[in-house]
């Protein structure tokens, strides 16, 4: 390629003047240009992107929301065509390397609606969960194991997007529980309990792989106490609960993301004339599938959590398994 064809600020290259056999491109010159126009035969806008540590071409396309990624008309094939120096899209690129990204119309539309500034989303989530509650009496050495029917629950909330990486949220959760059986010879009274919890939280994405979330909620927690030798009473107490969660994206296929999450649970004390509890603590693990579109998001979540609370002389041991589906829609 002649010197006159080198890339200066905002210049043009004709495809018929590029050596298609060797695919040689002068990237020292490419770095001088922010936007390049490629003629084949019409101009194609191209934006310069500098790679960060640990990034691959596919991870960059996901991060920049270049969908669809794969397929004949996917951005992966198009990006490889204008970056012939990249031989394998799964290789980790050197930090600070400059690559050419074609114009992303969906990203342009998002920027026009000011996606990186403030906007809101509304979400509706529904699911079912199962609860096992074990009451362990340290004075007598006895325990009662209680199981629930499928507990339906629903959540409604609002998300505030402050930037593309940071958001806050708040909402309400409503569930109806029913304890159905015990492994000991007890009769369960008042087993149907309606639970309401209010929550708010923060979510932050560190990069395309890792994110964290903190949720604080206030509302009902199930407890159990002995009324007589053969009767247990199930009731609810109100307290504050906190969840500190970290997540990682371990697989992405076009606009479908697969994440795993692990979190620490902390429950505050609840005290009255009957109960005088300590702080409760536990953990949670989850698998998450996200289907992302321009104006909406569909999330499926399968989770398991376990936590315990001590109310002298009894320890309440909770195990919960659930599955939920959430639909989130952007508000104009």
Low-confidence stretches: 1-27, 29-42, 110-116
Order of helices and strands: EHEEHHEHEEEEEEEEEEEE
Strand content: over 45%
Distance between the termini: 49 Å
Describe this protein's structure.
- With about 325 residues, this protein is mainly beta.
- Helices cover about 10% and strands about 60% of the residues.
- It is built from 4 helices and 16 strands.
- The strands form 2 sheets. Strands 5, 6, 7, 8, 9, 10, 11, 12, 13, 14, 15 and 16 form a 12-stranded mixed sheet that branches. It has a 4-stranded mixed sheet with strand order 1-2-3-4.
- Strand 5 (about 120-135) and strand 6 form a beta hairpin.
- The longest helix is centred in the N-terminal third of the chain and has 8 residues, at about 75-80.
- About 15% of the residues are buried.
- Mean pLDDT is about 80; it is low at about 1-25, about 30-40 and about 110-115.
């Amino acid at each position: 390629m002649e010197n006159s064809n080198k890339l200066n600020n905002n210049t043009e290259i004709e495809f018929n003047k590029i050596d298609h056999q060797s695919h040689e491109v002068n990237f020292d010159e490419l770095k001088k240009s922010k936007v390049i126009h490629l003629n084949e035969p019409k101009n194609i806008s191209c934006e310069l992107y500098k790679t960060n540590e640990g990034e691959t071409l596919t991870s960059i396309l996901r991060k920049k929301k270049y969908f669809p990624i794969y397929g004949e008309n996917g951005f992966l094939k198009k990006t490889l065509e204008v970056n012939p120096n990249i031989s394998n899209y799964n290789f980790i690129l050197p930090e600070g390397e400059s690559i050419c990204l074609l114009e992303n119309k969906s990203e342009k539309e998002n920027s026009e609606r000011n996606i990186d500034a403030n906007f809101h989303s509304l979400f509706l989530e529904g699911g079912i969960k199962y609860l096992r509650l074990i009451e362990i009496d340290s004075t007598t050495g006895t325990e009662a194991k209680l199981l629930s029917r499928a507990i339906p629950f629903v959540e409604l909330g609002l998300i505030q997007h402050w930037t593309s990486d940071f958001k806050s949220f708040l909402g309400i959760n409503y569930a109806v529980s029913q304890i159905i059986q015990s492994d000991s010879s007890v009769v369960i009274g008042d087993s149907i309990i309606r639970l309401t919890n209010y929550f708010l939280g923060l979510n932050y994405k560190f990069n395309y792989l890792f994110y964290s979330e903190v949720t604080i909620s206030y509302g009902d927690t199930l407890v159990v106490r002995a009324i007589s030798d053969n009767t247990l009473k199930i009731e609810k107490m109100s307290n504050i609960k906190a969840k500190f969660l970290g997540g990682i994206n371990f697989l992405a296929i076009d606009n479908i993301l697969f994440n795993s999450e692990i979190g620490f649970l902390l429950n505050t004390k609840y005290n009255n004339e009957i109960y005088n509890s300590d702080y409760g603590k536990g953990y949670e693990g989850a698998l998450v599938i996200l289907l992302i579109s321009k104006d909406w998001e569909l999330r499926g979540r399968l989770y398991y959590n376990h936590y315990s609370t001590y109310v002298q002389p009894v320890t309440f041991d909770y195990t919960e398994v659930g599955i939920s589906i959430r639909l989130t829609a952007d508000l104009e």
